[in-house]
Write a structure and sequence with these properties.
globular; 39% helix
């Protein structure tokens, strides 16, 4: 979540006004998800949309800085510091084999059964064609880079 704005918060760097509408849209979508009912859903399943939107917001900032080079380094660092994007997840995206990673919990061995990575990290070619695979943690249907 982005930090709460206080009087001590510095003004955002140049270029923030151009992407502010999109970031506000992500914040509004998160707020809508928090207010929806979670009845009839599993405990983890109610958090899946939150994971997906934070992933989309981080990917948006990553693409702006690394792919399209549309924002400055100063603005990128400010966005990371303010909590608009997950810096650790972006650091993984820069490594080979993790380009499509959905969340950091999927690669933490201690979080999963048998101390292995999540099922969504297994390439789809090595899984049954008929079986639908969903990550228990974030609802991802496959984030292996070889898919």
């Amino acid at each position: 979540m982005p930090r709460i704005k206080t009087l001590r918060t510095k003004k955002p760097p140049e270029g923030f006004a151009e992407i502010e509408d999109t970031l506000l849209d992500f914040a509004n979508r998160l707020r809508d998800i928090e207010s929806t009912s979670h009845e009839g859903k599993r405990k983890n399943e109610s958090l899946w949309p939150v994971f997906q939107i934070t992933h989309q917001r981080s990917r948006y900032i990553y693409d702006l800085f690394y792919t399209r080079e549309a924002i400055s380094s100063e603005l990128y660092q400010w966005l990371l510091k303010q909590g608009y994007a997950d810096g650790n997840l972006i650091a993984k995206w820069k490594k080979q084999g993790y380009e499509k990673l959905c969340c950091l919990r999927c690669i933490q061995a201690k979080e999963n059964t048998f101390n292995a990575t999540c099922i969504c990290r297994v390439p789809k070619s090595k899984l049954d064609k008929d079986k639908v695979v969903e990550c228990v943690t974030c609802g991802c249907r496959g984030c292996a880079s070889s898919d």
